[in-house]
Amino acid sequence: MVLSSRASADGAPPASHADARSGRRTVWRWLGEAVARRHRAVLAVWLVLLAASALMAPGLLQRAVAPAVRVNGSPSVTGASLLEHGFAGLGTEQMLLVFASATLSSDDETYQRALQAGVRAVSAQPQVGGVQLLPPVRGQDRRRAYAIVGLNGDQAARQAALPPLRDAAQRAVRQASGSLVDAHIVSETAMLAEAKHADLADLRRAELVAVPVALLALLIGLGAAGAALVVLATALTVMVTALGVLAAASLLGTETDTFMLAVAATVGMGLGLDYALLILLRYRRARGMGHERVHAAGVATSTAGRTAGWCALAVALTAAALLVVRMSMIRTMAAAVGIAAVVAATAALTLLPAALVAADRWLARGRLRRPRPRRAAGRRRRVHPGRPERDGDGAGGWSRWARHLMRHPIAYTLACVGVLAVAAAPAAGLRLGFDLDRASIARTDLGRGLAYMEADGVSSALAVVLPHAVGAPPVDTGALVAALGADPQVALAAPLDNGRDLTVILVVGRTPIDDPAITALARRLTDHDAPALLPPGQRVLVTGPNAIFSELVEESTAQLGTVIALVLGCSLVFLLVTFRSVLLPIKAVVMNLLAVTAAFGLLTLATRHFPQIVGHQVNTLIPLLAFTLVFGLSIDYEMFLIHRIAEHYQVSGDNTDAVVHGLRHTARPITVAAAVMVTTFGALLTAHRHELAQLGLAIATAITLDATVIRLALVPALMRILGARNWWLPGGLARLLPAPRGGPGAVPREAAAVPDPSDVT
């Protein structure tokens, strides 16, 4: 019996032997064919979703808040709550109101009139609990004065109250002084508000860069404008729809922040490009083999579409590990990644098959190169039933590379490990911290106020909250206040008591808010000074911006190990079930760790040599975010490659030939997909915010290393060395694991029995 790689005489596609015997199709193929037959209805539904998402996007941008940086349930949050109830005048958050003049001294009559007008205007704002002027400190410029403003409410309420509060203060001060005195507000809320505006601006800029560059990469990789536009349109639809889901959630009362929007948009576009590209190549190959449109969509969905669905699940699972971190900002990012992955998989399995069938005759339009000559009808290649087609010597550059690699696996393994080790070495000097990124806020109201504060040594503020029994006398703070007054890092320490149940020490520090020294001061107050200098058993809670950022650093550092363990564990179990092998999951996890470590090594070098782009130190949140995202995205490429190798091996039983086959047929989609993914995340390097640039550089670098050094050389070389041991699975595990039905480890009938020639452009 002979199978032809071309269509039969009556135009029907070549049937697989298993299908011919059973007459059954996989669920995945059935889905692809059902969508293809009803492609007009499917496209209409997606068009409605796209239009609705686009209409809701402006409202989403208005409702989005700045990322919340407080650690849920932390001492600073508890202390802020006690302050709000015990000292209404100090509020949930203590803001600094900065008065500054270029010509007038603070004891000038006009200056004093402006200062009093500003205090009255701020005090009249509905969410302000009180305003308290601070006495001058040693070294303070006489042209400046400061006041503490207590602002009440949750984060969203405080962010909404900030613009009218700032406008009222500036208007009153300028009118009273004839514009000789100005007012600025410096606070946690003001910092987050600037972060919100910067995030949105950076996101728009990154997308303007990413879209045309991604289109260029697709044009080069696919060789046809029609195919490139279909892939790009699918990715943009995924991005807009993911934002539409967030918009709908925000309308239902779910709080969304700007960092969540940036992650959903970037990951949604990247995954949309990845999955659409993979499925389009399989569809185009099936069409080149003679399948008509509907059947080609079914073949593509049952192979590449199924892999995309499982890849999306892997991305969502790795992101879910971030839920252990007690920070709303990190948890919302995990939700954003999960939403983007689900939307991308849904679009890959429904929108793309419908679009491919509808645009079939346009896919080859705008060719950049000549199509390959087809095999003459009289020269059909004979393929034995049940035996996959072997790659010949003339199969092209990737086949030659694969066979060369198979002849020298040990040399390439050592070379690749050496390259990754050299790239990872600088990671030993990685410096983590919190950086206000002053360059990005220098020209803002916040930046000017902060510059005045740091010049005067009034750089940061803490509140030491000391609850006591109702009716008891104030806590004896004399010794602690004296010790703080003698501390060169402290500009002012003032005790207060509400006469009921709460004593507070207001501490103004000379050290900048993002300096590790002020973080150490907050920790020393809690762990050493307060227990030693206050009455025994006194409860101590330190709050304020410094304490909040200190807890952010501590929580992200403490939970990094937990997140890594969860991601590694989930990845191992997922890949074990997926590929029904013990060594393949272990190898995949080790390879991903190498890629992530090498990426952070290169990021460390960037902080030393290009601080103007990525800053002087790595933001403490970047390892958490980059690790989970890189692991999820790297599993995509692992599954693309290993799934194709497994398809061939499970039929032929020849490990070396299967590795050559898998590398030959996935090298192109992996490199093109990686190129557009690198483009998507690399566009974040245009961001003004250093943490966004750091995230973009880390992920883009890791994907580049993963798709080149690891997937195209190291993994195939290791699989050649391991041989049949790649597929080892103990009998006990084999009985426990589900049978490979419909999962990516299963061999679809159309993949196992239909010849699979090289890609047809």
TrEMBL record:
Superkingdom per UniProt: Bacteria
Region Disordered: which residues? 1-20, 373-395
Basic residues: bias regions:
373-385
Pfam families named in the record: MMPL
Principal subcellular localization: membrane
The cellular location(s) given in this protein's UniProt record come to:
Cell membrane
Name of this protein: MMPL family transporter
